[in-house]
Structure to design on (463 residues):
């Protein structure tokens, strides 16, 4: 591989470049640039970054109920007694939970899938937290499932998959209104759009 | 003279993955350049003008700006978004199936106009179609044909004798039908019924958009699909995921009915 003039004298630098190169969207040249940037950082800043990575790996776990990323399980949202225990909102990833929480118009629980069905990118239903969702629903205390996958083809396919799986069950399934543009992403929608989408959710 | 910095192309959007803060790395199959990957910056923002036009299974006209490492999608205009294909899960899965195979068989830097046309024709044929079996199987066989892997369906691939009425065998590795007298040299040899030969020949001379319906029993359907699937996966060197997804789904809905 062409990594440019890497100083062979520094195996630890080479190792850092190699590790950075593994990150998504980081090519070999960006990895080198980042590595040099890290070397120039004051020691405490560099160590703070290393510590943040270590701490995230040690402490962040999946919530046993909603599968969101959390330091404690059940997470703070699942533990909040005032939340409507009969409503579950299904989202693709943790950032979507944050986006919806910002709107203050939903007080039920969440379920984070950590992705969408996308066979071309190698993601099938088994790779998502769908089994955990269906197990949660089996307990029977959930009255409404609000599907809030992104309005993309894969998001829609995932929504249809959930609906097909729950066919014939005594559970109300709603979907965020398509006020969101097709192909967009919840994470980047403004709060007002999200609010309207929530208010206009419809029976399927 | 240096090549122009931008170019236009018609393409079928196959897939995308998030790229950077708010962009997408999009893979599409173009009519004149084969498979291309390019970055659509800001495309995940809901106010992006690229939004929606870059969804998988959209035929679009793109303006691409050449970059040092990766090219950029500068403009995109949907030509056909195959709405009927996206209405239900089975149709979407059929669409994913076509896209996955075009992704697998389509080469980068190699134009294959017949492959592009085959993909577009197949998506039109299966969109909103309640009986997509024959158009899809026709796609399977024609995909082999346009990829230079046309299976031999009239002679034995070993001894070159014309196939006589009766039972035969099929070897994906040797590229077609074999008579029972010839010894297969590889393990991947499947039985081939006379009926299946006839269906394969029909698929060979038809196109997904215009294939005439024929009456086929479940066993024959399974046999033909199995032969084509093994052949496609033999050349792809991996399992077709959209397929296993559909099988999972059907298994699940069946078990849901009985439990
Ligand atoms: Zn939780
Ligand atoms: Zn022979």
């Amino acid at each position: 591989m062409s990594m440019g003039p890497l100083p062979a004298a520094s195996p630890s630098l080479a190792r850092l470049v190699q590790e950075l190169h593994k990150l998504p969207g980081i090519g070999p040249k960006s990895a080198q640039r980042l590595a040099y940037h890290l070397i120039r950082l004051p020691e405490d800043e560099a160590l703070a970054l290393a510590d943040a990575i270590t701490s995230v790996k040690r402490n962040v776990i999946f919530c046993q109920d909603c599968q969101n990323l959390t330091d404690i399980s059940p997470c703070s949202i699942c533990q909040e007694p005032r939340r409507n225990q009969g409503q579950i909102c299904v989202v693709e990833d943790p950032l979507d939970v944050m986006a919806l929480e910002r709107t203050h118009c939903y007080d039920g629980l969440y379920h984070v899938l950590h992705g969408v069905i996308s066979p071309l990118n190698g993601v099938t239903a088994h790779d998502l937290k769908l089994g955990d969702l269906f197990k949660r629903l089996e307990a029977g205390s959930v009255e409404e499932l609000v599907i809030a996958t992104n309005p993309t083809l894969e998001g829609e396919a995932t929504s249809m998959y959930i609906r097909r799986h729950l066919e014939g069950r005594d559970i109300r399934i709603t979907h965020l209104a398509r006020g969101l543009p097709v192909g967009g992403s919840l994470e980047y929608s403004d709060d007002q759009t999200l609010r309207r989408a929530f208010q206009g959710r419809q029976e399927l | 003279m240096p090549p122009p910095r931008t170019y236009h192309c018609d393409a079928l959007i196959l897939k995308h993955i998030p790229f950077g803060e708010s962009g997408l790395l999009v893979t599409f199959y173009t009519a004149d350049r084969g498979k291309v990957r390019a970055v659509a910056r800001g495309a995940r923002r809901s106010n992006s003008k690229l939004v929606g036009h870059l969804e998988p299974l959209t035929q679009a006209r793109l303006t691409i700006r050449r970059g040092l490492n990766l090219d950029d999608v500068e403009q995109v205009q949907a030509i056909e978004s195959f709405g009927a294909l996206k209405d239900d899960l089975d149709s979407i899965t059929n669409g994913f199936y076509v896209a996955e195979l075009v992704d697998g068989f389509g080469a980068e830097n190699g134009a294959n106009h017949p492959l592009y046309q085959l993909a577009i024709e197949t998506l039109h044929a299966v969109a909103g179609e309640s009986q997509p079996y024959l158009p899809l199987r026709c796609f399977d066989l024609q995909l082999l044909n346009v990829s230079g892997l046309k299976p031999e369906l009239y002679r034995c691939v070993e001894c070159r004798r014309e196939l006589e009425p009766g039972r035969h065998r099929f070897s994906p590795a040797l590229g077609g039908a074999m008579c029972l007298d010839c010894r297969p040299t590889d393990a991947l040899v499947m039985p081939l019924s006379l009926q299946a030969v006839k269906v394969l020949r029909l698929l060979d001379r038809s196109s997904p958009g215009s294939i005439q319906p024929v009456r086929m029993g479940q066993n024959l359907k399974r046999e033909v699909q199995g032969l084509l699937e093994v052949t496609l996966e033999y050349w792809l060197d991996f399992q077709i995921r959209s397929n296993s997804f559909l099988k999972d789904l059907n298994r699940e809905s069946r078990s849901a009915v009985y439990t």
Notes: Helices of chain B lie at 89-105, 113-126, 133-146, 194-204, 218-236, 241-258. Residues B 156, 158-159, 161, 178-179, 181-182 surround zinc ion (ligand 2) (CB under 6 Å). Chain B has a mean pLDDT of 89.
